[in-house]
Amino acid sequence: MEPSNIQAVLALNFDHWGVAPIREVPIEPFLGKGLFTSDGKYWEHSRSLLKPIFGRAQISDFSYLEEHTKRLIKLIPSDGSTEDLQPLFKRLFLDVSTQFIFGESLNSLLSDSGNTGINAVHFLAAFDKAMIGIRVKKDLEILRWLRSDDENWKNACSEVHAFVDEYVRKGVKRKERTPVGDNDELRQLPISLLDELLEETNDRRNIRNQLLDIFSAARDTTAVAPSNVFFNLARHPQVWKKLGHEVSSAPENLTFELLKSMKYLQFVVKEST
């Protein structure tokens, strides 16, 4: 597909390409109304809530990414044996995304040490079941009423909602503990999508919908890109060597601007994804 066509659909002529008619009915009972399920005014409302939070300055703190990456590296065998990196990348970006979205990481990379709570396991299983149910309902189209009484799917949706609602409750409590006009306590915490949304609205259901929308997009997508990159690097040692030289020559302080300036890294990522 031509990049200009994608740009027209997603940006330049977005108003001409609605998603609600095909997504609203099968998806809304689980994800609610949000950025990826709505058109028109409600889409604009969701975008206005989320856009400021994803400003460049607010997503350029790599400290917690470094912490989780170090955990991943510890799980890679050092004896030269072959390792499938994709499951590890999925756990890495699960931990990073939950920390950014909810303000607390699921710490799945620590599960080998028994540090991941059983609630996280249940949450992920329920989330997968809910997403599979959405796909089935979408494929059935006008026959989706055949699955209208699917209690297993409804229970999975309820379990996910309860899990996210608990994080929202914690965020509300955090905000209530902060004196009016004094945000120093919150400023010292890592930025989270939840805390930022609580500054914009008190509608807990709307907040849950926005959080689930972003989580559903971040769940596996970001893990696929580095998996493809390393799949190709393992088969092209000369590219690995040249990329390693560029990375090792870069300053130690990692910034958003530095990443964009690393041309060969950009080429490798773009050709692998």
Please give a structural write-up.
The structure is a single chain. The protein has 273 residues and is mostly helical. The chain contains 14 helices and no strands. The protein has helices at residues 3-12, 20-31, 40-50, 63-74, 85-102, 118-140, 151-177, 184-187, 193-200, 204-218, 221-233, 237-249, 256-261, 263-272. α5 (85-102) runs antiparallel to α10, α6 crosses α7 (151-177) and α11 (221-233) crosses α14. The mean pLDDT is 82.
Globular, elongated, flat, extended or rod-shaped: what is the shape? globular
Distance between the amino and carboxyl termini: 14 Å
* Structural class assignment: mainly alpha
H/I helix tally: 14
- How much of the residues is beta strand, in percent? under 5%
Main β-sheet, in a few words? none
Q: What is the number of beta strands?
A: 0
Mean pLDDT across residues: 82
Evaluate the radius of gyration: 21 Å
Order of helices and strands: HHHHHHHHHHHHHH
Helix content class: 55-70%
